[in-house]
């Protein structure tokens, strides 16, 4: 139901803002003289821009879906081989003690544990191409345990919120964009981004755990969280002082090596158990094709709504309002220039990247605003895109408190991004 209201809000807000812009242009002389409000030809074409965005976003949705067909076909085929070879049980033993506390409704040694772990690993390594199909596989496994097929279960909500916090160890893509924008040190946002994304993940975990009454003070849970915190702290310490080129090379090597080792590991287990690896891969690949086709309507609906909201100028209007509010409160407004990236991030990954590149171009890649925009870009994932794709793949229509929890987690990541950016870049 919440998606229904959000979707209507996108179109309703877009229409109101666009109408006000058109009205302002038609009476621009009067408004300029008496109120000092300025309008130009861009306001006259706002409805044309909105209609054009519907076609662009619909086309983008199909392109994404076509891309996902190949990726999903590959990875669900590999996952099927791993499942038959017993890889899920191996991964389940690694993550079982921790995940059994976070996902108490999932039976012991269920395939969902392995799928969830692999998705989290792919996200942490910044491998979006692998993370999405693995996440869809995990959502499908969780849907098999869901008693109400149209309503998100507790386990699905926990998984999706943690997924959208986007805990990424090394933001390779963002560092590449900074290098392209002429940054003197593209990797200077590595530590702030890692801290911000970790804060987003902890915020999401705490929020959902409170709602689901999960005890995070259990010794097992604390041990895993402290272990992850120690790992990240060690990684921060070890990467300090390394040149940008070497950081980029190491991150790419580790990420791609780990993913390919997963593939070899799954194929080896299948061969060891005398599974017909090729036929098993084909069986899983067929499932991937079906899932990629099924999400098209959900993807078109969400991206078109987001596109209209952005084209209308509603996002710019929101940012300007916040800027004036912050200024009125007497607070430092240096961070306001980067807010478009933060606001766009939950809505559209490509939109957030566009905002980030635009911000670096306008303010400079090495400016405070340019750096903060990049930290925003790496601190969380795209909530509404992920929600539409993951829930759409299994037919979930009632999302319960997923959106609220996800937005709280993203807000935690964004606030941490602002604070840590002031600390690092001042």
Can you describe this structure?
The protein has 426 residues and is mainly alpha-helical. It has helices at residues 2-26, 28-34, 41-44, 46-85, 87-102, 111-124, 128-144, 154-164, 172-180, 190-212, 219-239, 244-272, 277-294, 296-311, 314-328, 339-344, 349-363, 368-379, 383-394, 402-425. It has one domain (57-425). It has 20 helices and no strands. α14 (296-311) packs antiparallel against α19 (383-394) and α18 runs antiparallel to α20. The chain is globular and about 80 Å long. The mean pLDDT is 81.
Summarize the structure.
The protein is mainly alpha-helical and 426 residues long. The chain has helices at 2-26, 28-34, 41-44, 46-85, 87-102, 111-124, 128-144, 154-164, 172-180, 190-212, 219-239, 244-272, 277-294, 296-311, 314-328, 339-344, 349-363, 368-379, 383-394, 402-425.
List its salient traits.
426 residues; mainly alpha; 78% helix; globular
How many E strands?
0
Instruction: Summarize model confidence as the mean pLDDT.
Output: 81
Helix share, percent: over 70%
Q: How many domain units?
A: 1
Shape: globular
Give the topology string: H per helix, E per strand. Answer: HHHHHHHHHHHHHHHHHHHH
Derived from helix and strand composition plus strand pairing, the structural class reads mainly alpha
CA-based gyration radius: 22 Å
Distance between the termini: 42 Å
Topology:
Blueprint: H1 2-26, H2 28-34, H3 41-44, H4 46-85, H5 87-102, H6 111-124, H7 128-144, H8 154-164, H9 172-180, H10 190-212, H11 219-239, H12 244-272, H13 277-294, H14 296-311, H15 314-328, H16 339-344, H17 349-363, H18 368-379, H19 383-394, H20 402-425
Helix pairs in contact: 1-14, 4-7, 4-12, 4-13, 4-14, 5-6, 6-7, 7-8, 7-19, 8-10, 8-19, 8-20, 10-18, 10-20, 14-19, 17-18, 18-20
